[in-house]
Design brief:
21% strand
Amino acid sequence: METESTRQQKVARQLQKDLSEIFQQQGMAAYDGAMISVTGVRISSDLSFAKVFISVFPSSKAENAMKIISKNIKSIRLEIGKRVKNQLRIVPEIAFNIDDSLDYVEKIENLLKQ
């Protein structure tokens, strides 16, 4: 895997910050009572595609939250466009993925307790 350029890292951090703010402003009610956290962003070298990793709490609501996000992806991308219009020429396509690393950690901890 190739390493990310400084520009990619800066854009990824900015997208992560902006998306976190968007989810925070929309509130938990917009996502069926689930809390959405943006845990990471990976962006392509041409800055046209962003893979966004989100964590959903409680994890039992992850599937439903993903459906809601998928339905609202255009408005989320539009909001990102408003925020990064001065920094980026194109607003990247966004793909959301569930980051289940916290569930994995919890599962390992439970196994170790036994």
